[in-house]
Amino acid sequence: MNNNEEKELLYLQIFGSILFIITIIISIILTINNIKNINHKKPIFNQKEENNISLNNRLIITIIAITFTFISYKFYEKNKYGNNKNISQKELTASVFALISTLILLNTTIENIQRKNNNTDINAPII
Q: Are 59 and 106 contacting, i.e. CB atoms less than 8 angstroms apart?
């Protein structure tokens, strides 16, 4: 990996981090919406809007996790024979675990939306 490729990966990581912060803000807004629903106040979003926003937010988080796993893999490839091998291995392992957790959360969101569409009243937390 040359310096330009490394620089591009770092810019991609910055972009992913900014996107992640935005998804956290969206999750906070969705949580506020749930609190309003529980308190029988007018929510910010109706159920269909909330479901769409939540699903899209989880999809974005999953894409971010895939991107970070790819970046970690590229840095692992660069460092696998050098002094930073152990650090790169740990970062790659952490990225893979994060990706697995985002896939589980995406599945949970889909199941939760399906339950809501079937009028059952079980809510999964919005993370």
A: yes
Tell me the C-alpha distance between 2 and 102, whole Å.
Answer: 31
- The span from the CA of 7 to the CA of 21, in Å, is 21
Nearest CA to 47 out of 110, 122, 107, 117 is that of 117
At 101, list the tokens.
């957790």
Looking at residue 125, what DSSP letter applies? -
For 15-31, letters b (16+ CB in 10 Å) and e give ebeeeeeebeebbeebe
Residues in the chain: 127
Question: What's the predicted TM-score (pTM) here?
Answer: 0.84
Provide the token pair at 24: 């956290």
What is the structure's pLDDT at 121?
53
Closest C-alpha to 125, from 20, 18, 28, 47: 28
Neighbours of 41 (CB within 10 A): 10
Per residue in 44-98, pLDDT (tens digit) is 999 999 999 999 999 999 999 999 999 999 999 998 888 888 999 999 999 999 9
